């Protein structure tokens, strides 16, 4: 049965200023829906309700006489909320109003009234932004990149391609491909807004190496591999492409693809800190006397580190029963679509609290809410998946509200309340003082974590400086690293940037690339020791498979086919080889093996 607890507050005067209308989720009311006579106290039934003072959403809203006590439905609650009447702190009410809304102005009042009279409801003001989880392919017109694009599209996955030459890309990839025109060597061309909706990246961009004597228009000599011509760098240097370009690309996509350790939204963690502008939002806005504060205790966290402290005294006097702190709206919305939920690190007190997240800058709007229980006297991390957030408006679930949109988060609220949702009570509620130390609020990626950034590097990147290596037995790129402007050295530096970025990654190091079809048996290895050849088509398929495999996450490996260089590999179109399960290979990979171990051991020996 619905509760008839009413939260619309009017000042003691007859003013109908829109700023006298204040609704808070801690209440159990369903303002805007009809009162149920069966849930009303006889005192309320016996009094004549005043005429509507303002039509909101086409439905009347009433001001209840303050001397009447509102009772909750006897079917839900056996005792009245209000045990006593206390004086209402009008000054604190206006202080709260001022903190969140600023000084009232005629323009604000007119805008408020027009909006309400237009009939739009809070549910209607919530618009879900349409976003797709794009895979961004960098170097999309290269030998591996275009194959990655084609195979992603065959799978029906949404693709964006980062290219330098739009005309060339349209001819090669088709007219309907979504393009981002930019150059990884030019940071100014990689505008963060262009990458909105990108959730995963496959980077196949590479410095261009070509024959000194020139090549055919379709780069036939290049396609055969460096082994078959005397090479030189064409275009931008290895440092610009492999190192500076990698740094620019990581910076451009970091926010959209997410970090393995999550995104700090509030609090103090290691050397990072993120503070928000919190203000108290208590039941004073509905005539109650509960009171809370939020402050930063520089030594109140774990191990004497800083922590926020939400504390106060909660009372059910004057039909109250909740305290909360709420942030001002963020300067710009926060995009958390790369993540899966909120993680709150706090020291519990055995009570149940609520986290309320808003995706609209409107004051009185749907809040996406999750309750959580705490353990008394113990620091704990509480994970609240985005999927667990329920749309709530004035303590009622809004069944037709749009799903939570993590790409447009504008404010947070923490609440301790007598009320749960839809007429239920908080089973841990007690009146009196409370305090909740809070060290962090973060967005997290759920387990198992899969790679968000797959990079095509090269076998041999650790070998030019490896002690005791016989260069005469190494591929041309290793022997000619210095002549090729230290191409492998800068590829390794680029790899290190990925490993240090915090983005979940996979680094694929192919041996010599060929135009042969995919399908040959493969050798996966780690430590940067193998030589051989592998199909560009096979590398494209490996990159796509890595995006979905937790076994490939944060791994670096080399790969080649078992077919010797001297033997061509062909496929019978009538009897193609079966599709590979690349997870079988990924499962054998180990953490932390890059081939740099040999360099470090050599340095120690010296």
TrEMBL record:
Residues 139-254, 451-550 form the NAD(P)-binding domain. Pfam families: CIA30 (PF08547), NAD_binding_10 (PF13460). Residues 273-436 form the NADH:ubiquinone oxidoreductase intermediate-associated protein domain. This is NAD(P)-binding domain-containing protein. It comes from Gossypium stocksii.
